[in-house]
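Preliminary data (for renewal application), adenosine-5'-triphosphate complex.
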Amino acid sequence: MSDDFSALIDDDDKQPPVRKIPPIQTGTPPARMGGIIQQADPVEPEWEPPSDDEWIPPAEDQWEPPHDEKKEMQEPLKRESSGEVRTPPGRRTDQRIKLGIEGLDEMLGGGLVKNSVTGIIGTYGTGKTTFAINFIFEGLKLGETCILISLDERAEMLKESIRRRGYDLDAYLDKTFFLIKLDPTDFTLAVNSIKNDIPDLIRETKASRVVIDPISLFEGLLPDEASRRLEMFKFVERMRDEDCTFVMTSETDTQIPYASKYGLVEYLVDCVVLLRYVRTSDLSGTHLAVEVVKMRRSQHSREIKPYEIQPDDVVVYSEASVF
Ligand SMILES: Nc1ncnc2c1ncn2[C@@H]1O[C@H](COP(=O)(O)OP(=O)(O)OP(=O)(O)O)[C@@H](O)[C@H]1O
Ligand SMILES: [Mg+2]
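Predicted structure:
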């Protein structure tokens, strides 16, 4: 690892390391700069009919057209507003990356699609960080290299929670696991690190799983709606170019418990996992509930399932129902 990156890895909260900040990159291709949603170039190759061996037609009883997307079936190559080319509905033999939460991996059709970008959206205390840690340690146990970038929790507190959950942190820390604490109040450092250093670090370490927790703090650093849209679009596009499966968590909107804080994440990512509280009908308590709201190019469950965060595990009750 180069000195540039080791300076980012926060081993000791008390002594902020001297960090080398690369200049903000300029010269982004104009097509990506303008019209974030409507005019962006397609970032993936045009869809071509898959060969027989990579296309598994869905069994009739396994797939139902989404109620509001029947039109999409008739026009499978119509562009989405994000500029992406839609693939026909059905299942493809995409490689899956497990989150390490059994019931949720099942809801995702086997896990996250390899090298996709996922948003885990939830209000405070719903388990965003816990889900992120699970995802990271599932990869570490498989021998992968993983990066967790925390914008809210102190490195020492995070390490403590990881150890408390029973993970052998010291076996991986600074070897195949890189824990980076960014201070969101240091605007220049946080923005430049996220925009420039992180993609370089991913390449240098060959990390296959990367988490930013929560991305909404980065979004909040940006001065206005227009720059948030532009920077988030550019950042997510940049992460798509990396050979890694990327998860970003987001706080929810204060009024809408199923929308991300700035209403961007859910449109930019490939997959959205929503975590929320559901009150019991007699108002005697709350349950936690998880839902896969969107998963591009993949079949997934649309059910809402209860889950519990236990001291050393996250359990999704796939047989139970919330309502
Ligand atoms: N070791 C543990 N044992 C039992 N429950 C735990 C444990 N760790 C976390 N939890 C539960 O998970 C909740 C918080 O989880 P987590 O920090 O992952 O949520 P979060 O969505 O990241 O919260 P925030 O928005 O505040 O960052 C706690 O409120 C608690 O209910
Ligand atoms: Mg958290």
